[in-house]
Amino acid sequence: MPSDQTWNRDGLPAWSYRSSSLLDLEKNRVFLNHWIVVGHVNDLREPGDWLSFDLLGERAMVIRGKDGEIRAFHNTCRHRGSRLVEGEQGHCRGAVMCPFHAWVYTLEGGLKTASQPDKFPSLDSKDFGLQSLELETWRTFCF
User: Fold this and answer.
1) Comparing C-alpha atoms, which of 103, 104, 98, 110 is closest to residue 59?
2) CB atoms within 10 A of CB 49
3) Which of 129, 130, 102 is nearest to 117 (CA)?
4) Domain residue limits, the chain
5) Per-residue model confidence as pLDDT tens digits over 39-85
């Protein structure tokens, strides 16, 4: 361990804060290869409670289903890609509804109904449900 007299306290060089190649390296070697804490189970106490965040250009939400399970999904509607929930945290009463064309998803991510279903062919709720993301809970933290 270096003594206080030899420890370099200058920090990173200025170029490193605006280097796109260093950012790409960090994205690939750090952020995309390590678990990221996205919340705590106490943030999602009730079915319909959700958290949302953007990471490296991807929009995501974590939500507790009616079955008590916590899941993660892309925070985008399968119809036109609209953001489903706004803000960092909130609650949905029984379903997630797209604000753009009112597609409705269950709290478990399945497509419940498409707006104006007579204008679409029969849609399989599994094929048009929300796109899931990998999520693990460890010691009450969601990653």
Assistant:
1) 98
2) 20
3) 102
4) 39-142
5) 999 999 999 999 999 988 889 999 999 999 999 999 999 988 999 99
